[in-house]
Amino acid sequence: MVVARQAMKRNSLIYSILTSYDYGAIESLAQQDANHKRKKCGRKPTLSRSQKSLIEEYLTLTWSPEIVTHQLK
What we know:
By secondary structure, the chain is mostly helical. It has five helices and no strands. The chain is rod-shaped.
């Protein structure tokens, strides 16, 4: 490319700059990617919804946490 030779840069660098001219779209995609990665990080739940509701039910019946743990094993 003539532009690349005049600027003394690689063709791929000039091409990537020219093809990514729509900065608004790039910022939007970057933000979506960051939000997706943020949701994936952190501790994952180890209980299913049914197990969680069962534990909550036992605790409302005034069962001690030790008894609930023993009951679920």
